[in-house]
Prior knowledge:
2 copies of one chain form a homodimer.
Chain A: H1 10-18, H2 26-48, H3 58-93, H4 100-130, H5 132-141, H6 147-169, H7 178-192, H8 195-211
Amino acid sequence: MSDELQNRPVRQFLDELASGAPTPGGGSVAALTGALAAGLLTMVCDLTIGKKAYAAFEDEARVIRARAEALRAELQSFLQADVEVFGGLMAAYKLPKATEAEASARNAEIQIATRSATEVPLRTARAAAALLPLCEPLARRGSRNAVSDVGVAAQLIRAAVPSALLNVDINLPALEDTAFVEQARAQAAELTGGLDQRVGEVLAIVRERIAG
Amino acid sequence: MSDELQNRPVRQFLDELASGAPTPGGGSVAALTGALAAGLLTMVCDLTIGKKAYAAFEDEARVIRARAEALRAELQSFLQADVEVFGGLMAAYKLPKATEAEASARNAEIQIATRSATEVPLRTARAAAALLPLCEPLARRGSRNAVSDVGVAAQLIRAAVPSALLNVDINLPALEDTAFVEQARAQAAELTGGLDQRVGEVLAIVRERIAG
């Protein structure tokens, strides 16, 4: 689809982001931030694999690379998905509500659309968080020349997860399905718990290798 | 220049980032992260300006918008500048060093190129940090519908500043100009000092407005 966000030149993506149009917005940016982190991790794997100095780490680097690329594909798909679920939500709010039947049908549509608009950033947060366990071994044993890029990836993960979850939080008050709301809140808490600390550990390894 | 990184489709930018080519790398990603934050802040201004409910904040929102756009332009230029200074650095390292005169000329070039490769991420960090004071008034008084986007921008700023500075740190050990190195370290310390706390304050305002 030529209309996909991913096909826009970076400059145009930024211009559209900065415009008063509601999409792309924070949800797509969170997904892009995660995809940038994944891309950096893959790059570090590629600068590690095939180098004599890192031969003992090569098999593990290949596994990390495959995982990073799978998560990058997922995160890139959420870039567009976020725009689509937001469009669905706007469309639901525009449905007629003149009669009681219309109002009831409209509310049902809003519930469905809000749930979708919550699930996409939740999945974004989950995919971005899944990148974090890849950072520590890469920071410790990957190419030293690219270790700062692992640090950048870790910083981006720390930004992408709570950014995506802000887009969950903003939708939850509109949802009537309390079981879903509680589940979403529990997942959000699980994804952010210990995030800062684990990112800090990766950064400490990065700084140690830059220094030494 | 059609070869500019910014003219690449987002998808291609991510593919090139993920490739084993050393650029684009963490420096360009730090600049892009800052530009994404700036774009979100401009978007929130555009969703605020012209709305009756935010009329009292409109003049300030216009000032914030102009500042965000100026910083976005600067950050977008660093996306490409980072690739160019890295290219200059690689070229300097490839200079001949067979004779003493060659080795001395090569070292002089390396010093110049490393300094440039340090200045670009330092300016990136400074521009990204300059976005932070724009967040608090926007979070507090900008459109409530877009307040989560201010939160995302704040998270991105917190990622962009130290990410850019990692690209400063990795270059400093090669520099012989100790006065420049000390100055760079002092600037880096100034840019990161209190960053987490100030981002936390913005996020607290964002969460308060989402909840209430």
